Amino acid sequence: MLYRVQLLETSECFDVEPDETILSAAQRANVALAHQCQFGACGTCRIKVMQGEVAYAEPPAALSDEEAADGYALACQALPRSDVVVSAARPLAPCSDPQTVTARLESIRPLTPDVLHVALELPADLELVYRPGQYVNLLTDGGVRRSFSLASKPDGRRIDFQIRRIPGGRFTDQRLAQMAPGEAIDVELPLGSFCFHPEDYRPVVLAATGTGLAPIKSIVESLMGDPDCPPVALYWGVRTEADLYLHDEIQRWHEQFDDFTYVPVLSRADATWRGRRGHVQQAVLEDLPDLSEHAIYLCGSPNMIADAKRAFCASGASAAHLYVDSFNFQP
């Protein structure tokens, strides 16, 4: 039995085949819906069901019980069980269409024994517009794609990354180790819908773990010097003090803001650490027990994001103002 899906904002309609997801049907009908991982782990394709019902073959990892109770669904996994009317994500700021270009390696340097700073130089004639928080695919030999968030704000031809080295990894531990300045690498960009939403007009909470700091850094740097910037609170969770690879630089960011807070949180701190301990999401709740007026950006490990979403929604956070970039490995 066919079901009809209508987008509230545009009145676009399309039919969904039995056991077909809303996203698959939308793509077949050339209706644009934001999406990324397509297996329910990132939450990029979140929609709100205004009328009708949907179900899932398996509960998606990126949709909390609280979000589902509020009527939210993930288009990449949702199976209509009636005609439905859905509200899709709000329009994003314009950016360039994804394209593949050849970049040149500018530099590689270690930030920690496990994290590399990688800078690439894009072609001189490339007119690129991207949103702070987006990611790119670096194409390895054979065309295999490796996704990395941009750690730099949109500015000129240089793009930066913070890449965690995976021991034995074909790209992060082998390919990068062999690359020399000036060497070419194909890059697909810009990609993703994780980005700053200035239309929210809310105090901003940014919570990251590990190299999830990269897109957060891009967002924060894009806000520096903006007279309309709301209060910004950055919580960065890592294991040990040695993992705080941008600690000194971040401590200077407050000079660029009227209201900026930085809270590093260590989960495996030694006895010399005088700062916060535990999990980054718990530190947020200790400081901000009522999150109902905040816009929240989460980036990093899937476990942190899943736990943070549950806890933050229980503390009043608006699911419509909660944005996620989960560092998942697709099976």
TrEMBL record:
The entry lists its GO molecular-function terms as: 2 iron, 2 sulfur cluster binding; oxidoreductase activity
2Fe-2S ferredoxin-type domain: from which residue to which, for each copy? 3-92
Domain called FAD-binding FR-type: residue spans:
98-197
Name the keywords, alphabetized. 2Fe-2S, Iron, Iron-sulfur, Metal-binding
PROSITE patterns membership: 2FE2S_FER_1, 2FE2S_FER_2, FAD_FR
Note the superkingdom of the native organism.
Bacteria
Q: Which cofactor does it need?
A: [2Fe-2S] cluster; FAD
Coiled coil (residue ranges): none
According to UniProt, the name of this protein is Oxidoreductase FAD/NAD(P)-binding domain protein
| Lineage, uppermost ranks | Bacteria, Pseudomonadati, Pseudomonadota, Betaproteobacteria, Burkholderiales
